[in-house]
Amino acid sequence: MNRREALQMLATGAVIPLLPGHLPALMREARSLVENPPAVRSLNAHQELTVRTMAEMILPKTDTPGATDVGASQFIDLMLTEWYDEPVRSMFLKGLADVDARSQSLFGKDFVACSPIQQAEILKALGEKMVEEAGAAREQPQTTRRAPMRRIDNNFYSVLRRLTLTAYYTSEAGATAELHFEMIPDGYHGCVEIGGKGPQSQ
């Protein structure tokens, strides 16, 4: 698997919670190939802090790790930089600007300076808009089978949520603490008796 293949696999990683067996292991391998980017590249310091704050609200730390613990904001920056094309990247950055514009309009300060209750109010509004747009997209004529996904990708909060979940569930902490996947792969049993009694003793 090369770096681009790893990025492609991670870009569809929101399905991780539904996948059995060896596929989560492949996702972890893909993530290991793209970890440790040199620096934040698509997001500036303020944008990265905003993404980090929002991601932590989506997946907060409890008795298990949260989004910040698994480096969700750095992962999102990586995907914006190396996988998504310019239209999606621009849409995402405009979405971040809109978050601060909403915060300034409602509370007179940027999102990261708001109280948790104020931040939750903004995320609730973003979630309602996401659901509304997704519903409208489903009602429109579909020219191709993939058209609904492209429309949903035009929603900033949808992309943020999906990337946050992907960052979390492709991390070792998320896969083990939340999904309880075993890090040790299944054993190979080459000599199994017919009837499924297990490997023969040597």
Sheet-strand content, in percent, reads under 5%
| Portion in helices | 55-70%
Q: Evaluate the radius of gyration.
A: 20 Å
Largest sheet: none
> Given the structure, what is the number of helices?
9
Total strands: the figure is 0
Instruction: Give the topology string: H per helix, E per strand.
Output: HHHHHHHHH
Number of domains: 1
The structural class is: mainly alpha
Provide mean pLDDT, rounded: 77
**Terminal-residue CA separation:** 36 Å
Q: What would you call the shape? A: globular
List the helices and strands and how they pair.
Elements (H helix, E strand, L loop, with lengths): L2 H9 L10 H13 L10 H14 L13 H11 L3 H22 L8 H24 L7 H6 L3 H14 L2 H6 L25
Helix pairs in contact: 1-2, 3-4, 4-8, 5-8
Would you write up a description of this structure?
- The protein is mainly α and 202 residues long.
- It has one domain.
- The protein has helices at residues 3-11, 22-34, 45-58, 72-82, 86-107, 116-139, 147-152, 156-169, 172-177.
Features:
202 residues, mainly alpha, globular
